[in-house]
Give the backbone structure.
Amino acid sequence: MPRCWFLLSGFLNLSALAQPIVPGFETLDVNNGLSQNSVYSIYQDQEGFMWFGTADGLNRYDGDEIKVYKTKTNLRIRGNSNFIRGRLCEDQLHNIWFCTETGIYYYERQSDQVKPGFIFPELRSGVNYYFLFTIDSTQTLWLGSRYLGVYSWNIKTMTWNSFPLHPDTNTNRVFTAEREMMDPSGNIWFSWYQNDGFMRFDIRKKIFEHLYGGKDYQAICFGKGKHFLSSEKYVYRFDSITSKLDSIKLEKESRLSTTFSLDVEDSYGRLWGSRSDEGLYYYDFAAGKMFRFRKNYMSQKSISSDIIRSLFEDRSGNLWVGTDGGGVGRLDLKPPLFNIFPLFEGQYPELKDYFIKSLFEDKKGRIWFGTLNGLHIYDPAEGTVFNYTHHIADTHSLPGTSVSVIYQDKKGNIWIGDNRGVAIFNEQQGKFIPLPVDLSSIRHFSGAQVNKILELQSGDLLVAAVGHLLLVKQDNKGNYYSIDADTHKVIPPTITDITELDNGHIWFVSPLGGLYDSWMINGSFKIGESFFPGIDFRSIHRDEIDHHILWIASGKGLIRFDTDTRKYALFNESNGMANSFIYGILEDEKNNFWMSTNGGLVYFDRKWNAFKNYTANEGLQSNEFNTGAFYKGESGHFYFGGVKGFNWFGSFNVSEKKKKPGIGITSVLVENVPYQKDSLFFRDAPIRLHYYQNDLIFRLAVFDYTRPEANKIKYRLEGRDDDWVTTYNKEIRFGKLLPGSYTLLITAGNNADEWGDEKKIAIIIQSPFWQKTWFYILCSALLVGLIVFITVNLSKRKINGRIRLLEKQQAIDAERDRISKDMHDEVGSGLTRIALMTELINSNQGLDRKTRTGVDEIAGSARKLVDTMSEIIWALNPYNDKLENLLAYLREQTRHYFEPFHEIDYQIHFPDQIPVISLSNEQRRNIFLVTKEALNNALKHAGATVISLSLCLNGDCCDFLVSDNGKGIASLKSRMGSNGLVNMQKRITEIGGKIEWMERDGGGTTVHYRICF
Amino acid sequence: MTPIVIIEDDEKIRNYLVALITGSGEFDLKASFATVEEAESFFREGMGDVVELILTDIQLPGKSGIDFINWLKPQRPDIQLMVLSIYDDADKVFKALKAGASGYILKNTPALKLIESLHELRKGGSPMSGQIARKVVEAFQQSIPYTDNKETLSAREKEVLDWLSKGYRYQEIADKLFISLETVRTHIRNIYEKLHAHNRSEALRKAGLR
């Protein structure tokens, strides 16, 4: 019978004993932004960036993007100043040094630019080019030139020294090498011509030594505490501690005829090397085998070129392979969490699909899997896949197409269940023997997908297919036959899984019917209780410790069902599972569960009731797994199959020391303009911005290159947000930040969910001066000052205005007074003179009486006038404005007036306490005159003997009374004449007062005049 | 006969006064001047040593009567100075009184009364009008600290002054205080002297010498 098998290419000798490597290379080339596809040097700097030196420029990779740095060049410069030869070195300032055909250059971290360091005195090209080796602790760069020697250049002193190597005078041999080696002490090793040992240049002693001569060594490589040598037939390992030299004989296929260079010992003890254009090799000491990677045009994940130029292991456990013409590839050296089949989609073109429906591990360790199109056997060690498909013509080929069950019974027979039925598979012969089915006893058989085959304790096989249940028995002859197990038709159709308990009860799960308890009596089933009708059940797992506990995988989650108590518990997404739709459950040695779901694989730690989820990012074929595609092998390996292939793993590599990813800032943009290029500077100084620079973009890099697309960052801006934000985005943006002080905290997480250390960046946005405290204070102070100033000024002005007004008034008054006084003085002195002169005249004795009398009258009038003037002056004097003054004056003057008249009893009655009342000029004068007039009337016309002047105070009013005991009003009027009374009236009303004449009891008159204030 | 000199710029009035005083037979008119300067030179020459009474006008050409009083009084504290005034205007008269005058006479006064007033003046100072009394009170209220008794008024004197400022006459005050008219007059004379002393020390204080 024809058998189809295909040889898998691209692998060689991948033994299961060796440290497994997922043989997939992720390549970066010009399509990803690399400046050129020939990568001669690779380096990871102290911060975490990957640097690639190519034939046309320096490149920096951060996991996301590649940034290209080139030296400035022009037509006058001879040679290619961007052809980087040799290694990349990092100095104390974290600048990256490299040398090209024209000189030594460096990438300056602070300015994010490439600058020249030293231009070579002479152009070297061809095979004589300079290449950079290393930098030592004195910051001296060491370079070599093939055939010619070693050179040094000190960064600080900028001195160039050369140490030429003269050809061997004996043999005229010169050294040559594919690659130059450096030992841990920093010494430089060159391969000697025709593999005659090596030339070592001691950088301290600065001398050349010829070592390992005559032993046919091809290459030397230095590892940790040991070094390796290779020759055509052997690989040697020299342990510097034990001084033991192991030699391992290479197998014939592995032998190499041309020079083989050894490059790197990785952290897993593998020795990597390459041979001119024959790909990448590594020697696995544990397996004792040499492995090789070659370019495979059919595979996306193969190495990109066979010509290897540089190798480098980064700190995340990845091997970087610089090729000539193929860019740089990355290989994950770490043992994978999950082995995967296929490595990539097109790996096995002969397989029509990778929809895994069933899985099985045989004693040889091969993995059997059934897809929609056949049965396949995969040998992980060899990498081969054998396929068995249905052929119409061949009756012994696979009966059906979709292989849903692969089952081995206790006798060792392999039963295959597909969509046509059941068959026993004979691998040796490559034949399938279909199970004979008694058609009469079965309703219909065609098109019945077999879901489960289970060997019962009785030794019979129970076969569950869509629509019916079969019991397969063996007759005496050893032939198999099947009978209908469910004659009474109690079992519901579409059974997805069956399990048998110790007590012989058989439990079924059916997506339509639910969970059924059943047992067989006399060859047919009896149904007991059923539970959870209508739940989409996918499989049952019997608890390995408590055999009466059933764990059921359903579309609604994991159900723990106690068959004794009938009690159940449900676990689903709310408990922490990534997805509630569970397909298969496998129990590990700790009695924890691995479950396949629609959201990846879930590990259920039953001790802590905790769930850990794994997705495609961790290396799963996809997130969607399939019903029935799970198996635990006798080796202890777990197999889970899904829509794109399957995964398998042994004891889980949780002990593997997890590497924490570092985080770096590639650039900071403020208002879309680069702020400062070097993230190292941020650590010390905060970012200081003005208030209008409030839009910030941070571009970050996660330094773990295992699976860059699964790297994530967690950040929080203290001072604005309180929450942590987790994102796969490597660019974070903050807009419209208000002035203040902020701290940005960032952490990086890699594909294995390891989180690195937190990094803090302080951001200070200075408030504009008009928002600063001192400004507010100043403004308020100014404002207050302004208010005070205005107020004071206004009041001052007001006061000044009033003062001026008053002064004006005072000046007017003073002037008036002065004028009147001057006038009065003039008039007064004139009148006095008149009076005096009349006296003189009268002193003349010769005058007659009549003349004398006339002259006397003149004198009298003049004197009287002077008196009047005196009164006026008194009234004008503002000093006399108080009522008290008026009363004193009245008293004096009236007393003086009555002095000559001794017969009249003149009385004055003024109150003792006089309130302070101010009177105007007019008021004073008028009251005085009216009083004088009234007294005069009383004296002259009333003929009184007692006259009194009194004052009564009534609130704000003054009541003056002039009383006499003479004749009454009538006679007053007649004698005085109405003119005088009218005058008095006028005088009083002018000052706002009232006057009246009253008849006095007992005779006489009282003049009463009242003035109010 | 009391030796007297007169200072009056108005010729007619001066002649009148000269005639009146010499005609009275009770005063010995030593000289009459029209200006203060003339009077000053008279006194400087020692001609005025015998003079006991001076009658001077306030408003004079050149130096005023007050200036004359200010000049003469310190030299001759014994001389009684009287001021001639048209009105008993307190302001002008008070200044003269403060300076050292003992009283004032109204020019207007009839001849007989004038001589009488002169005599009264000699005895007890001129009658203090209410206005003047008020001014005196004020002057003493603006007292300088650390003045001695010679300058401060006694309680009795203050009382007398108080009644005077209300307009009461000497006799009325005497009746009210149950003292004699003569005592009242004495009080008033003392008040005048204290006023002079007070004025002097204030002048000294203003000159910074006290």
